[in-house]
Each structure stands twice: as structure tokens, then as C-alpha cells.
Design a protein that fits this description.
The complex is a heterotrimer of chains A (about 120), B (about 140) and C (about 775).
Chain A: H1 2-20, H2 25-46, H3 71-102, H4 107-120
Helix pairs in contact in A: 1-2, 2-3
Chain B: H1 4-27, H2 35-53, H3 55-62, H4 66-86, E1 96-101, E2 105-108, H5 109-134
Helix pairs in contact in B: 1-2, 2-3, 2-5, 4-5
Chain C: H1 3-25, H2 27-33, H3 36-53, E1 58-65, E2 70-76, H4 78-102, H5 108-127, H6 131-149, H7 156-187, H8 192-195, H9 199-204, H10 208-222, H11 231-234, H12 240-249, H13 254-266, H14 270-291, H15 297-318, H16 321-352, H17 368-382, H18 388-401, H19 407-429, H20 431-434, H21 449-467, H22 469-485, H23 501-526, H24 537-560, H25 565-586, H26 601-619, H27 623-643, H28 647-668, H29 680-706, H30 712-725, H31 730-738, H32 740-767
Antiparallel strand pairs in C: 1-2
The chains are: A mainly alpha (about 120), B mainly alpha (about 140), C mainly alpha (about 775).
Chain lengths: ~120, ~140, ~775
């Protein structure tokens, strides 16, 4: 199953990167979210997949009942998911503000427009 | 964006979701759950409530400024790390009470740390959502 | 006992910090206190002079970076002692002179502070016992020199000169550092005391020549050797006490110091001989020739300093015991007469209001003591008996005549340089004081003792050395010569060597110098005299390079910093993909033993849904559809987490997706509609970029999973979770216990992101737009 996920990861990276290099800045938010998912899935897959055996020690046992899923990538990804949300929210608000200030979401318009407006205020 | 069904349902769901989030936090050390997901459930509960009843009402319901929640969360997590310093142990060393407690097993500074995470994550998400809704 | 060394070096830095405050609060006393420090240091050094001269160096060492063999060590031997005495002795005179020269200038405190810092850095350089320690102090002298040349920073000329000096010597300094590192690698030590014994190993090493060239680049730039000489005359923009101290007596001699210091290690080879004699000879002729066509007193002195530095390099290149003796005698003698001349030039400027020799004349009447000092110093410079300069010149000639190779050529250069130096001495020390009264007449006012005494003292010292050369030779010159040669030799200096060819040469030199002086006015009347000739030669090249640098960097910057995110991203992606692809092809090639694709239909379906969602998000032209597609991807990934044993991740992902959708719903209607800006061609290019990164990441994952994963990390966490972490959910135990510091950092990031959003949204209200 890892090799199937490798294709999925490749697809997510490609889609995310395609959206990131758009001139329209709104699309970049979507690219950012896709890249976040791609990275999380990459860490998860490279840590190997174990079907249906979460890294929990059974309530009555003292030693882990191997094989279990690897807990280290999971701990890494858990915080990454939440931070990804924080970053995505920040990007969303930032781009909304930029759009309100500049009045365009074309990156190429933005550099010139910003300078002109910056001169006024 | 006013839906009668959502508005009614959320009045009942809000306390349940908050209870569930606490449950997730407390049992997180032994079962799936923990501070991150608990905090997100709190945020989701209040977000839904705010969607149904408006931003003013949501803020009133939360009672505490979410920014303050973020700060308290960070301080609580920090405090859990500072406590062992009093005993001459390194920063963030886990301290455990010897008494077994219901649901959580043992009480210790990792739970306090998780509580900090819970408050901070809830505060962060709500801070963003309330402010966006205000516009 | 050896703690005295560190006290000698550090006291100056401490005093430098205190000086501005001292001048601010006690302006009357500060000027009298400051000269006491160099005087005390001078006395301190004299107390150990006996021991050092007897051949026992003082050593002090503190570990600094032991793993690299770098220590903060100090080493005082005969050569260091000679320089340290010069630095403190002339320092005393300069600190005595400066307050009187500057008058009531409020910047006096700053000037004194930098001069003190410079003195300390000089002492550090000459007493350094480790190559890296030496380098650090060496660069500190350069920085102090920069601040002092640019002291009048409101003058453009001063700023230009300061920049020029620090660029030229700074680039040389970098070369020097590289040379030192090479030397350290060759010999295996950075300690001077150990290095000095390893000359044979260094000279036989294949890296000897590069190391020599790099060290020479450092020494030549610092000591203003051709073709780097041009910064020194420009540095005359500094206040006169600075010129006297840094740019004639001490700092410019650091290059000479370095050559002398490393002579036992690097010297004695053909490369050394040719480099030093050629460069020294060129510098000598150039400096002496240009000195006599200048009209500004300070410029005459600066160019003749260049000539003197050339002489010293030439002598060190010859490398014979006689040449080393001549160099070590000429060095202090030159420092004495040149500082006397500079200080009297400053006094002339102060009293008469000009430094132009065509307007100066007959000042001996109004400032007799200055005239006495300058006259005496000029006689020493011209090499008249019974002054020290005479003995130095006799030795110089003798060393040149007795050289094995190129004897005639180097002697001719030395004689020609000396003839022109005689003329320059007359221009600087005779003409302004004893020449014809100027027309229109100047109205000079007499200057007080604090301006003429510091000039008279070194001039008198030159007379004393000339009268009692034997004593000076034994106590100061001989130990320094021993340091250069690596073994002590007897040095017997005498004023009278009998009637020999060298004496005739000396007399001929004096006579020719007088002739040229007499003929100078008609000669220079025909030659156009330029006070600055920055339009040709090395300085021209420097200016061209300096102009090109900002243009080159702005061209590069404009090209690279387009201000468009996508080009930056494409650069990053392009480099990453190329490097990864290169490594993949060159090392393992493509993954071979892949696990066979397995899994049930539901797993394949989930994977397909994620891919379809990603594709949908890229091609849709509707914002709402894009949000839905993003949600599909997110929930699909959550499903993968559930299927493969990560319920914690799945729960978190579900919550996040829900919140994300709420977020998008709140903001979406305020965002612009999707617009297609790019042309089909650039979309194709973007597609290629995207596919290349996607492909390479896929390959990377395939490669990673085809290798076995050592399980000990996973097993350690699984086994320790319950006993050490008191928890059965290992993921949570890692987050809140084992790696809680990471989590603390990550929630801090969350708090910062929240603050960022808050700031962005609140700022708007604050502005009231």
C-alpha cells in the first residue's frame, strides 16, 4: 500500500506546487493546504504503514503487543496538522487584507500597486 | 446565515461537545485524544454556536477573551515545565502523584501541560474565527 | 609575572572606553592623564627589557578554541619589544600633543579614545603569540585606522580615504587570514613559539608558495607597498597626530613587522628574495620620486614614508644579517625622525595656517623650537652625521653592496632613493623654517610647548642614538635582529666606519640631494604638480572596481529578486529537484525491491478520492468547488490515518477540516473570484515544474520504503511509554512528556500565528480605513 500512497503524495505535491505558482494569490492558499497534507502523508508513509494497530498499550497489558504502528511520525504529524491550520488561517487573512488594500489578486499588479499606494499613505 | 435547526441543535450540542472535549483531554494519556484534539473540539463547538447565533453571542457565551485563553494556555504549559525546577530537576521533567485517580490514571505535570495545549489551541482557533466573523 | 603582558594589552582598551567620559566630565585633567598610560607602559616594558634582550621571551597563554589549536597567547621577544617600545614611546608624544593640536574641539574625547584603542591593538599585534590572535589585533588596528582617517566624517574626502584604506588593507587582511590558516595546516601549529622552529618543514611544503603569497598580500597592503601604496597618501586626510602615529611611525610598519616576524619561517628562499626586493625597490623609487614633487608638507612626508617602507621591505628581502641589522636600526630611526617631522608639520599648520611649502618660509624666527625639532629630524632623515640616520644609511648601503645577487642594481636603487630622500628632507625640514620669507608674508603666531616638545623629543632621541649607537645597538637592535634571523648575532654600531666606499657613497648622496633641491623650483615649474594623482595606475583600478561593485550587485539583485513569489518558488524547486535527481541517479538509481501494491478496494478508493480532490482543486474555476475539493482531500487523508492505526491523527484532522471549512465559508465571499492570469505557455511551464516536484517526491518515498527501517526508535518509545511516561497512548506520551519541549515550541508557534491574524485584523480598525 505504501507504493500507492507514494503516487498519492506525488500527486498532492504536484497539485499543491501548481497552485502555489499561480499569479492569482487566492489559489496559493489552496496550494498551501495541499502541500501541508502532502508533507504529513509523506512522513506517515515513510514511517511505514501498519493496518489497524494504533500505538496504544492495551489496558490490561504492561508491554506493547507488537507489531504496532510507529508513534514517532504520528506525534510529528499531529502538531504539524494544527500548525498547518494556524498558517492557513494566517495566509487566508493576509491575502484577504492584501486584496482589500490593493484591489487585485494578480501578483504582477501587486508590486507596482503597493508601491504607489505606499507612497500615498 | 441563520438556520433555525442549527441554532436549536447547537444549544443542546454545545454542553455535550464541551463535555466530550474534556473527556478527550483527560483520557488522552491512555486512549485516543489529548489536548490538541480536545481544544479543537471546543473551538468547533463555539464556532458552530457562533455561526448560528452571531459573533456577539458567541463571545458572550465563551465569557473569556480568546487572546487571553491563548496566553493562559501558554503560561500553564510553561508552568508545568517550571514546576520541576523547584525540585532541582531539569525543565519539563514529568512529576507524578502516587495516588491513582479515576479516568486519568495518575495525575501529573504532563496533564497540566496537556491542559495548557488544550486552552491554547481552543483560544487560537476561536481568536481567528471570532475576528473573521466580526467583519 | 607574565600577567603583565595581558595587562599591557588590555589596559589600552579599557582606557579607550573611559576616555570620552573622562574628557566630558574633566576636560582639564583628561589631557594630562592620557599620556601617562603610554608612559607607564613604556616604563613597564623597560623593566623587562633586560630579560628579553638576554634572549628569554615572555609568554602568556589562555586557551581560546583548543580544538582548532587557537589560543589567546602573547609572546614578547626582541622584535616585539622594539615595536612595543616604539608604540608606547611615540604614543606618549602623540597623546601629549593631541589636546594642544585640537584646541577646544569637542571631539577630542572621541579622538583620544580611538587613539588609545589603536595603541592597545598595536600592542596586541606586536605581542601576539598565536597567528589568530595576531590576526584579530591586526584587523583591530585597521578598524581604528578607519575611524581615525575618517575622523572628520563631514568631509567627503576623509570618508573616501577611510574607506579606501580599510578596503585595501581589509582585503589584504583576508588574504593574510587564509595564509595563516595554510601556515597552521602546514606546520600543525598556530603558536608562534612553535612555528618559528619549523621553518624547514614549511619551506619544503608544496603549499609554501601559496602561503607565502597570501601572507605577503597582507603585509604589502598594510605597509603600503607598490601597487597598494595609494591608500597611504590619501590617509593624510586624518588629523596630523593620527598621521604621525598611525601612518608613519607605527601601523604602516605592521607589514614590515610581519615580514620580520615570519622571516625565520618563510624567508631565505628565492621567491621571498625576489618578491621582497622587487616590491621594496619599486616602492622606494616611487615614494621617493613622488615625495619631491609635492607641495603639501604632509604629502611630502607621506610619500617619503612610502619610500622608507620600501627600503625596509628591500632590506628584509635581502635577508643577510647585515641587512636585518640595517632594517632594525632604520625602522626606529625612521619612526623617530618621521614622527618629529609630522608633529612639527602639524605645529606649522597650527601656527601659520597652511602646509603649502610654496607659501611657507622663514618660520624659524617665530617658532624657533619647532624649527629646531624639524631641522634636527630632517638632518637625520638626510643621513647627516652625527645623527642616527647617518648610521642607518651607512648600514643600508653596506648591506646592499655586500649582497650576492643583483648587488649593483639594489645599491643603485638604494642610492637613488636616498638622494631623493635628502631632497625631501630639505623640503620638509629646511625650506619652511630657513627658506626665504614668504610672499605674501604669513603672520604666524608662536606655538606653545605642548606642540613643539613632542616633536623635539624624538628628534633629540635621534641625536642621542647617533652619539651613542653602541649601547642602542646592543640593547634594542641586536635582540630584534636575533628574532629575525632565528639566532643571536653580535651587533656593534658605530658612527665612524673609517674612509671606505660606503662613506663616499654617502657624501655623493648628500651632494646630489642638495643639487636636486636647488634645481627643484625650475624643474617643477615645468612639470605640472598635482597634489592628487588618482587618475592613473593602481588607484584608478581601485576606483573603477569600486564603481563596478554596486552596479554589479544591483544587476544581480534585480535579476534574482524579481519580487514575484512564483519565481522564487521555481528557483527553489528547480534546485531541489536537480540536486535530488542528480543524487538519485548517481547513487542508488531507482528503487528496485518495492513492496508490491496490496490493500483492499476501500484503500485504493480512498487514494483515488484524494487524487481526484487534488486535481479538482487545481482545475476548477469555482471557489466553492475548490473548497469542497480541499475538504475531500483532507477527509481522505483522515481516512488513511484511521485505516493505518492513527486514530489520534484522524480525530485531529477531522476537527481541523471542519474548522477550515468554517473559516473558508467566513472569508470566501470577500475573496476575489478565480481568474486566469497566465498565458497557456506559462501554464505549461508551471505544469512541468509541478510535475517534476511531484515526480521527485514520489521517487523519494518509493526509495525510502524500499529500504528497511531500523525499529529501535519506535520500539524504545513503545516500551518506555508505560514505565517512564505513565501513559498507554504512546503518541500523547511523546507529545506531552518525552518530547514536550518540541510541543512547547510548536504551541508557541500557534500562539504567534494567532497573534499575527489578530494583528492583521485589528490593525485595520486602528487605521480606520
Amino acid at each position: 500500500m505504501e507504493s500507492v500512497l507514494a503516487v498519492v503524495i506525488g500527486g498532492l505535491y504536484a497539485a499543491g506546487m501548481y497552485l502555489m505558482v499561480r499569479r492569482s494569490i487566492v489559489k496559493m492558499i489552496f496550494g498551501l493546504a495541499l502541500l501541508g497534507n502532502a508533507a504529513n502523508l509523506l512522513i506517515f508513509t515513510v514511517g511505514r504503514l501498519t493496518r489497524g494497530r494504533p500505538p496504544h498499550i492495551p489496558p490490561d497489558g504492561v508491554v506493547p503487543d507488537l507489531p504496532l504502528a510507529d508513534p514517532v511520525p504520528q506525534a510529528l504529524i499531529l502538531t504539524a496538522i494544527v500548525i498547518g491550520f494556524g498558517v492557513q488561517a494566517f495566509a487566508l487573512v493576509l491575502i484577504k487584507r492584501v486584496y482589500q488594500t490593493v484591489g487585485s489578486d494578480d501578483q504582477d499588479q501587486m508590486t507596482l500597486e503597493n508601491q504607489e499606494r505606499g507612497g500615498e499613505s | 446565515m441563520h438556520s433555525l435547526i442549527l441554532a436549536t441543535a447547537i444549544r443542546l450540542l454545545l454542553p455535550l461537545m464541551l463535555l466530550f472535549s474534556l473527556f478527550l483531554l483527560l483520557r488522552g494519556h491512555n486512549e485516543p485524544g489529548g489536548g490538541f484534539v480536545g481544544g479543537l473540539v471546543v473551538a468547533a463547538a463555539f464556532a458552530l454556536y457562533t455561526l448560528a447565533h452571531g459573533e456577539q453571542e458567541g463571545r458572550r457565551m465563551l465569557r473569556i477573551d480568546p487572546l487571553r485563553l491563548v496566553a493562559i494556555g501558554l503560561l500553564v504549559a510553561l508552568l508545568s515545565g517550571l514546576l520541576p525546577l523547584l525540585g532541582g530537576l531539569p525543565f519539563l521533567t514529568a512529576l507524578w502523584s502516587s495516588l491513582p485517580a479515576p479516568v486519568i490514571g495518575h495525575a501529573g505535570t504532563p496533564l497540566l501541560f496537556d491542559l495548557g495545549v488544550y486552552l491554547l489551541v481552543a483560544g487560537m482557533a476561536l481568536l481567528i474565527i471570532f475576528n473573521l466573523m466580526e467583519e | 609575572m607574565n600577567d603583565m603582558l595581558i595587562a599591557i594589552v588590555l589596559s589600552g582598551f579599557l582606557a579607550a572606553l573611559a576616555a570620552p567620559a573622562l574628557y566630558h566630565f574633566f576636560p582639564r585633567w583628561a589631557g594630562r592623564l592620557c599620556p601617562l598610560l603610554p608612559l607607564a607602559l613604556f616604563a613597564c616594558l623597560l623593566t623587562v627589557a633586560g630579560q628579553v634582550s638576554a634572549g628569554t621571551p615572555l609568554i602568556f597563554s589562555l586557551p581560546w578554541i583548543p580544538s582548532l589549536g587557537i589560543s589567546f597567547s602573547l609572546y614578547l621577544d626582541g622584535l616585539g619589544l622594539l615595536f612595543a617600545l616604539l608604540v608606547t614611546g611615540i604614543g606618549f608624544l602623540v597623546f601629549l600633543y593631541t589636546p594642544a593640536y585640537m584646541g577646544n574641539d569637542v571631539r577630542l574625547g572621541r579622538l583620544t579614545g580611538w587613539l588609545l584603542a589603536f595603541m592597545a591593538a598595536m600592542l596586541g599585534t606586536t605581542l601576539a603569540g598565536n597567528l589568530i590572535t595576531l590576526f584579530v589585533f591586526w584587523e583591530l588596528t585597521g578598524i581604528c585606522s578607519y575611524m581615525l582617517i575618517g575622523f572628520d566624517h563631514e568631509q567627503e574626502e576623509a570618508r573616501r580615504a577611510a574607506l579606501q584604506a580599510i578596503l585595501v588593507t581589509g582585503i589584504g587582511g583576508l588574504a593574510l587570514l587564509a595564509g595563516f590558516i595554510l601556515l597552521g595546516n602546514i606546520s600543525g601549529t598556530m603558536e608562534l613559539a612553535e612555528l618559528l622552529g619549523g621553518g624547514d618543514i614549511v619551506r619544503a611544503h608544496p603549499l609554501y608558495l601559496p602561503a607565502l603569497m597570501l601572507v605577503l598580500a597582507g603585509a604589502f597592503t598594510k605597509s603600503a607597498q607598490f601597487p597598494y601604496h595609494f591608500w597611504l597618501p590619501s590617509a593624510m586626510a586624518a588629523p596630523t597626530p593620527v598621521s604621525a602615529y598611525l601612518h608613519s611611525a607605527t601601523m604602516v610598519k605592521l607589514g614590515i613587522y610581519l615580514l620580520a616576524r615570519l622571516s625565520p619561517v618563510l624567508g631565505g628562499t628565492e621567491a621571498w628574495f625576489f618578491c621582497l626586493t622587487l616590491t621594496g625597490g619599486m616602492t622606494l623609487l616611487l615614494g621617493a620620486g613622488l615625495a619631491i614633487v609635492r607641495n603639501d608638507l604632509k604629502q611630502i612626508l607621506a610619500w617619503s614614508t612610502v619610500a622608507a617602507l620600501g627600503t625596509l621591505t628591500l632590506l628584509l628581502g635581502l635577508g643577510s644579517p647585515l641587512a636585518a641589522t640595517a632594517a632594525m636600526l632604520f625602522l626606529p630611526v625612521h619612526a623617530l625622525y618621521k614622527s618629529a617631522l609630522f608633529l612639527s608639520a602639524g605645529a606649522v599648520d597650527h601656527g601659520a595656517g597652511t602646509r603649502d611649502i610654496s607659501r611657507l618660509g622663514g618660520l624659524a624666527r617665530s617658532m624657533p623650537w619647532v624649527a629646531a625639532a624639524a631641522g634636527l629630524a630632517a638632518l637625520s632623515m638626510a643621513g647627516m652625521p652625527p645623527l642616527a640616520g647617518f648610521i642607518a644609511k651607512e648600514l643600508l648601503y653596506e648591506a646592499n653592496v655586500q649582497t650576492q645577487v643583483w648587488s649593483t642594481a639594489v645599491t643603485a636603487i638604494a642610492v637613488l632613493g636616498s638622494v631623493l630622500t635628502v631632497t625631501a628632507a630639505l623640503l620638509a625640514g629646511y625650506l619652511p623654517f630657513f627658506g626665504k620669507r614668504a610672499d605674501p608674508p604669513l603672520h604666524p603666531h608662536p606655538v606653545d610647548a605642548r606642540l613643539w616638545l613632542p616633536a623635539l623629543l624624538p628628534a633629540l632621541a635621534g641625536l642621542l642614538i647617533g652619539l651613542f649607537p653602541g649601547y642602542f645597538g646592543r640593547w634594542l637592535v641586536a635582540p630584534a635582529v636575533a628574532s629575525i634571523l632565528g639566532n643571536p648575532i653580535p651587533v656593534e654600531l658605530a658612527l665612524w666606519h673609517g674612509i671606505n666606499p660606503v662613506l663616499w657613497l654617502s657624501l655623493a648622496t648628500l651632494a646630489s640631494g642638495l643639487c636636486i633641491f636647488a634645481l627643484r623650483s625650475p624643474l617643477t615649474a615645468r612639470l605640472p604638480i598635482r597634489e592628487r594623482d588618482g587618475v592613473w595606475g593602481a588607484e584608478r583600478l581601485y576606483n573603477v572596481l569600486l564603481d563596478l561593485l554596486p552596479r554589479f550587485s544591483s544587476a544581480v539583485t534585480n535579476r534574482l529578486q524579481s519580487g514575484r513569489l512564483r519565481y522564487y518558488l521555481m528557483t527553489v524547486v528547480g534546485v531541489t529537484v536537480s540536486l535530488l535527481a542528480y543524487t538519485l541517479i548517481n547513487t542508488s538509481g531507482l528503487p528496485s525491491n518495492l513492496p508490491r501494491p496490496d490493500g483492499g478496494l476501500h484503500e485504493w478508493l480512498t487514494a483515488f478520492v484524494i487524487l481526484a480532490g487534488a486535481l479538482m482543486a487545481t482545475v476548477t474555476s469555482s471557489r466553492l468547488a475548490a473548497v469542497a475539493a480541499l475538504g475531500t482531500v483532507g477527509y481522505g487523508v483522515a481516512l488513511i490515518y484511521i485505516l493505518f492505526g492513527a486514530p489520534d491523527l484522524a480525530m485531529t484532522q477531522f476537527c481541523i477540516e471542519t474548522l477550515s471549512i468554517i473559516l473558508f465559508v467566513l472569508v470566501l465571499h470577500k475573496l476575489p473570484r478565480f481568474t486566469q492570469f497566465s498565458s497557456p505557455l506559462s501554464r505549461l511551464r508551471d505544469l512541468l515544474v509541478a510535475l517534476s516536484i511531484g515526480g521527485i517526491m514520489m521517487l523519494l518515498v518509493l526509495l525510502a520504503i524500499s529500504q528497511p527501517l531500523p525499529p529501535h526508535l519506535k520500539n524504545w518509545f513503545l516500551e518506555q511509554s508505560l514505565p517512564a511516561g505513565h501513559g498507554r497512548n504512546v503518541v500523547n506520551v511523546i507529545l506531552v512528556d518525552f518530547r514536550a519541549l518540541d510541543t512547547l515550541g510548536e504551541i508557541t508557534v500557534l500562539a504567534v500565528a494567532a497573534l499575527g491574524v489578530y494583528g492583521l485584523l485589528k490593525n485595520r480598525d486602528g487605521k480606520g480605513t
